[in-house]
Input
Amino acid sequence: LRAIEDAAPAARHADRPIGVYVELDLGMHRVGVPRVDDAIALARAVCERPPLEFEGIAFYPGHVREPVDAQGAKLEQLQGSLRDALDQFERAGLRPRAVSGGSTPTLWRTHELQGVTEFRPGTYVYNDRTTAAIGACQWDDCALTVLATVVSTAVPGQAVVDAGSKALGREPMRGGGTDAADGFGCVLGHPEVVVKSMSEEHGVLDLSPSSWRPSVGEIVRIIPNHVCIVVHLNDAIVVVRGDEVETTWPVAARGRGYVVPGVSAP
Ligand SMILES: Cc1ncc(COP(=O)(O)O)c(C=O)c1O
Output
């Protein structure tokens, strides 16, 4: 309600309408109101404060991270909660123009949810190891890898690369498993070889499940567990087609996006 009360004078001041989504918690328990009558009260508060406009309902099914063909039970539950919410909105005389939900893990199944009019996958832009592990993409669909060089094979059964937590993030596998043995990424072309441990600048590849033995100096590409973190850890993305570098993209959303007066460049 506070956000609505703050946005209304700003919209009036700018003489511009602002479309407002009311977020429902449909199982993730992060943000969004869990009670539909609270969501209806928020939507009414929006309608009472033109030029704010009630745009619709949003939810994020971030709790659905099972393999794609095992999501049925959770999606059914989600459908039940969504249907109930939409019925209650209808009875309250509020018609959402948009019902926004969806994620990369549910990418192939969101259309099964009746009532959803838009969905918001994000990770799918690059995909990652978690996405491949649950079958929401193939290894070949993983478009972002971290280029690393093997710097040591001194310890039998492992190879050390020059990419550690500063390059890969320390992200666990999400959904598919959260075991430390799952590692922090895997090698493109050798998905059985995982980064089993890391320090800041070093990643240790566990070669035990593989007959592949890289040499010092060999360049490998690591598919990170969670690509979103990796993008923001790097200043630029080098875009390649085959073996050719096509261009470089600066990462505009690097860091946390605020300017510290006297410290950051505006
Ligand atoms: C609210 C919201 N919508 C959409 C997304 C995109 O989800 P995904 O990266 O799983 O596709 C996220 C990701 O964190 C999110 O927080």
